[in-house]
Each structure stands twice: as structure tokens, then as C-alpha cells.
Amino acid sequence: MVKVGIDQITFHVPNHYVDMVELAKARDIDPNKFLIGIGQEKMAVPTIEEDIVAMAANAANRIVTEEDKELIDQVIFATESGFDFSKSAATYIHQMLGIQPFAKAYEVKHACYGGTAALISAFNYVKLNPERKVLVIMSDISRYGLNSGGEATQGAGAIAMLVTANPRILALDSETLSLTDNQFDFWRPSYAEVPYVQGKYSTELYIEMFNTIIEEYAKRYPERLSELQAISFHLPFTKMGRKCLQSLENKEETNLDSELVERWFSHYEDSTFIGRQVGNVYTGSLYLSLISLLNFDENLEEGQRIGMFSYGSGAVAELFTGVLQPGFKDHISKEGTLLHLNRREKLDISAYEENFEQTLSNEDGVIEVVKDKETLHPGFYLDRIDDHRRYYNEIT
Ligand code: CAA
């Protein structure tokens, strides 16, 4: 059986961030609520030219080689921050990266679960077509509003990964377990600029679905579960996965070995490093946590199996697994991650608030997005909207 999985993976976050201590003070909240209570230190803030396509192109451009461009058959773009109900964000990436014309490019959506739906589709395609590759992208801007209950759990960023046969990082297993429950914990009707959210309920539902999946997984695949060295979680904020693991510890009746939960806990902190500095990137959050684990956990070894818990409000959850491949550490870069995070500039709270109010809506459909190109950082950016069409440019 051919192995299929993640051959390359990287991320891109905007050029600015807000310091959570400063945000807490501005909102008259004890900073420890943000730092410890929800587990966030910095929050990525996109400026107007850093839309989901620009961030995605910047991530993808780092991993896609000239040879890959001929071998990629699909570009799958997961997002819940789409700016068009019809044309998919994937078509821009197809053009910006110069992928061969006979590829297909499309967008998928199911809240934060969309990224996993894209990855599993890519996995299935490459299983059937092992000579070909799929580019999977997750890109989102998480916005709840100034002074809103969810403000401290905003963020923005994109993940890009190449799914191939004989992957160099993580070979995925075919057995997965998913769960669907039609609920209103977090949702954004098409007329709403920001989501409706029942914050506390959303965290409870997330934990409940995690527990239901673990119980059923333990019945169906007991050996596989006990093999899992670590679990990466979808992290809307970094306390979330910790709350799930704690819920397993506190369970009165459980078939789980307590050493197993302790083992998962021992890897947890390293999986949160990037999320703590970025915030929620919706579809990509689980994969930021995976990159974080791969980068910062010195105790992970090739051949070990890790789990990934995906959650998308509304709600769908899935637990899937993969095996770390020989030499996987050669294909991830802790230094690159730190450089990328540390290149960012801090916005003070008034600049963040001013930036937040900037929007692209314009009935004439003509907007010169970037007034002063001298201020831009290298990379792709949204240059202008003309006749309701988005045009991108690149600073090299
Ligand atoms: N020092 C240390 N800890 C403190 C503290 C202090 N001074 N003050 C408060 N805390 C702790 C609280 O005890 C609490 O801890 P526990 O969760 O362990 O009980 C924590 O800080 C948060 O406090 P509150 O519950 O009072 O916080 P809140 O009412 O402001 O809401 C939130 C937090 C619900 C996450 C809110 O930010 C929110 O609605 N966020 C958006 C929704 C969300 O992210 N939901 C997650 C599940 S849904 C999902 O995963 C999909 C998705 O991506 C959106």
C-alpha cells in the first residue's frame, strides 16, 4: 500500500500583531486572563492588503517548486473568510503560483473543519494517483469585533501543504473517525460581517465532541489510540486543547489509561507555541499546532504516531492520525518559524482599532488598496480592486 501524506508544510502570518497585555489593559481586564486564562500572548493583525489570498500565496510560494507546478493536479483552498460566494479563492493561487493548466482549483467550507476536509480529499486523490500532488491551503481572518467577547481570540494566517505519495514529513492513516452534530455554537450568516457566537457553549460543545470521539475511537481502534504519542488540537486559543485533556483526566469512568493522557499532556505545551503568538486562524489552527509540535518538541521521533483533532463549529469533528517519517526534522525549520514570527511589528491599540475599521466594501467596485507601496513588506499583496475584480502584485 502506497504511503500518502504531508510532504511539505509551512505557514504565513501577517506583518503586524497586537500585544495581549496591552489589549487587556485597554479593555480594563486583568492581563492574566488573556495570558493564562485563554493562553494568548500576541494576536496577528492583517492590514488591508493582506487578504486571505495574499497570505495563502505567500505560504504556498515557500514550498512549491518548479517541478511541483507540473505535478500538482488540484489546489484546494479551505476558508471561512471567503470574499466571493461564487469564484473560488483557489483560482487566484493557481494563477499566482503558475500551476499547470490542467489542474482543478476549488474552495471548501465547513467553519474551522474545512482545512481537514481539504486535506482528507487530497489524501484520497493521491492514494488513487500516487504520481501526482495536491496543494492544500487554509487561510482565514478571524474577526469578532472591537470590545466583543471573542476579541482576544482573533488572529489571521495561512497554511500551505503539499500532499504526495511517500511523504517526507507525515504519512496519514486511512482510518479516521468523524462526528457531526447540527448546533449553533458559532456561525456567520451571509449578511453578517462578524460571527454570532455562544462563547462558553462553543467550548463545551468542542470538549463534548472530543470526548465522544475518543470514547468511540477507543472502541473501534483501541491499539491505535494507545499508540498515539501526542495529539495536536484545533486551537481557537491555546487553553482549548488543555481543557480537552483535563476533561479526560477528570472523567469518572474512562477506559483510557491515565499514562496515555499524561503522555499527551507532556507534548501539549510545544504544540501551542505558534498559536500563542498568532491567535485563531480558523481552518489552519490545527495545522499551526501541528507545525508547532514538529518544530519545538525535541522528544518526537520518527516512526511515532501522532493524532490530530479537528473541530469546526456547527459542528463537525474528526480524529485522524499519521506516522512521522524518517528524516522529518530535515523538512521543518524551527529557525525559519522564529524568524517569520519575529519579523512582525507591533501595533499599538489605537492603530489596531483604526486598522480594524478599514474595509474593502465599495459599491463602485474600484479601490486602490495600497496607497504607499514603500511601506509594504516583501511578498504578495492585494494591489487593487477594479470593476469588482481583485488584482494582486508581488514585492520581491
Ligand atoms: N487569571 C487567570 N485566569 C483567568 C483570569 C485571571 N485573572 N480571569 C479569567 N481567567 C480564566 C477563567 O477562569 C477561564 O478559565 P477556564 O476556561 O479554564 O474556566 C478563562 O480565563 C476564560 O475566562 P471566561 O470564561 O470568563 O472568558 P470569556 O467569557 O471572556 O470567554 C471565550 C472566553 C468563550 C473563549 C471567548 O473569548 C469567545 O467567545 N471566543 C470565541 C469563541 C471560541 O473561540 N470558541 C472556542 C470553541 S469553538 C471553535 O473552536 C471554533 C472556532 O475556532 C471559533
What does this structure look like?
The protein is an alpha+beta fold and 396 residues long. The protein has two domains: 229 residues, Thiolase/Chalcone synthase (Peroxisomal Thiolase, Chain A, domain 1); 151 residues, Peroxisomal Thiolase, Chain A, domain 1 (3-Layer(aba) Sandwich). 37% of the residues lie in helices and 26% in strands. It has 14 helices and 18 strands. The strands form four sheets. Strands 1, 4, 5, 6, 7, 8, 9, 12, 13 and 14 form a ten-stranded mixed sheet that branches. Strands 3-2-15 form a three-stranded mixed sheet. Helix 7 packs across helix 9, helix 9 runs antiparallel to helix 10 and helix 10 packs across helix 12. The chain is globular, with a radius of gyration of 20 Å. The termini are far apart. The structure holds acetoacetyl-coenzyme A. The site of acetoacetyl-coenzyme A (CAA) has 27 residues, from helix 2 and helix 7.
Share in helix:
25-40%
CATH fold-type name of the largest domain: Peroxisomal Thiolase, Chain A, domain 1
Tell how many strands the DSSP assignment holds.
18
Level-1 CATH class name of the largest domain: Alpha Beta
Count of the domains = 2
What small molecules does the structure contain? acetoacetyl-coenzyme A
Structural class: alpha+beta
Determine the mean pLDDT: 96
Main sheet?
Answer: 10 strands, mixed
The shape, in one word, is: globular
End-to-end separation in angstroms reads 42 Å
Portion in strands: 25-35%
Question: Can you count the helices?
Answer: 14
